[in-house]
Structures are given as structure tokens and as C-alpha cells.
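subagent[fold] <- orchestrator: predict structure for attached chain, return C-alpha cells only, no commentary.
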Amino acid sequence: MTYFGTGETRAQCPKDCGPLAVPTNGSSRGKLTTFPNKIFFNCDEGFHLRGSHIRICRENGTWSGTETFCQGNLMFYFA
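subagent[fold] -> orchestrator:
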């Protein structure tokens, strides 16, 4: 960042978006929570991922997308 009229340049600290929860019955890949890093999500076999598969830490310090969770398959048994 250059400060107007000074010609001085200072490094900005990267914005930290904070940790994201690993979904129950799922996993995540990626550990860095600062801009512009990404976290990738997967669900265990028999579960479907709902929400965002990839979340990106944005420059303003917030995560893109929606909360990720793993939903089990619904099975109906008739007796």
C-alpha cells in the first residue's frame, strides 16, 4: 500500500477469515485461513455435500459461499 504524498510503501497484513468447521461425516483440505486461500470440502461415502464445495477467503476477511454440511442418504424400509 502506498500512502498518498509520502512515497512510502508498507506491507499490509493478510486478512484472516477465521477457521471453518469440518462437516460431520466429511473432511476438508486446506489449512490457511487468510486471503486469498481456499478450503475444499468432501463428504464420506453415503453422504451428500450441501452448501459450498469450496470456500474462498475474501479480501474483506469473510468467507465466500454458504456453510458446508454432509447430509446422509434417506432410506425407507417397508415391512
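orchestrator: received. Logging for downstream: DSSP finds no helices and five strands in the chain. The first strand starts at residue 26 and ends at 29.
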